[in-house]
Amino acid sequence: MTAEPLNRPATPAAPTSTPTDEMPTGFFRHFHTPRVVFGQDITLRQVVFALFLVFCLTPWASPPVALALGLVLAQTVGNPFTTHTKAFTHKLLQFSVIGLGFGMNAHAAVQAGKEGILFTVVSIFGTLILGYFVGKWMGLGRHVVHLISCGTAICGGSAIAAIGPVLRAKDEEMSVGLGTVFVLNALALFLFPPIGHALAMTQNQFGLWCAIAIHDTSSVVGAAAAYGNQALEVATTVKLARALWIIPVAIGTAMLFKQKGVKITIPYFILGFILAMLFNTFVPAYVPAAAKLGPVMTHLAKIGLTVTLFFIGAGLSAKVVKAVGVKPFVLGIVLWVVISTASLYVILHAA
Question: Full-prediction pTM beyond 0.70?
């Protein structure tokens, strides 16, 4: 096995450009027309992107707001830096998750992990089995079905990016899988907090629900952060423990699909999160000055997460949604609704 980055940008692998690839007509053409400023060619949409990005760095921006700004940008003037945002997104998310570890307590994390382990095992294998039968009934290709099922069961685009090479999936299959979970992942960030408040869920309940029912780590952390610090701690711990299941699922995939000589990614960045959490829990007792590092790193991590979600939203163009097609979306929605409602019921009725 070889180590490769786990969290890749949760955007489709093939044509992920904005809806403004060709020079538009009418009002939006003004945003694409270059103007010379201080000897540099600059377009209005680059200025809009920069203004949105700067806003995401301020205290007024929250993860849902950042994602919404990215979506607005993608559907109107388009993302002028698609290649760059795709390249930065997965690295920025990894660093942000590690930074969140500096604000967490190892003892509480272990307790949260124990509570979530049964949910994790049952939901992962239940989703994979359900996805197989529903996908077969719908007549979808095995690779697409398995990619969407893994993305729903484990950790969204990260799981698909890791499982795809094991399947030797085609670019088109990767694009469909990523596009499906990406759209649903974006919706979850907006839907889950209001549902949690409406049902008067506790911080612990909501954090556990997010980790199980929301696809990607970025939106899990974003939704949980909007709900509260305890929810964030539970959600991040359980989700990262869940992400480790990429390894056994990838090995099982290679065996099931009879693939030999494939590379399996190992999520080493999770080790960074654990080390940061251990540092925050034990080091300040011996080095009091180290206690000042935690709040700073946590603050920077939350800013990084906000920018990550802005980049993700900026990559979701109308073309991406249209390219996915109806059937994969239906499969993704069915799996998402089942895992969300089933886990919600169990969490609310657990003793």
Answer: yes
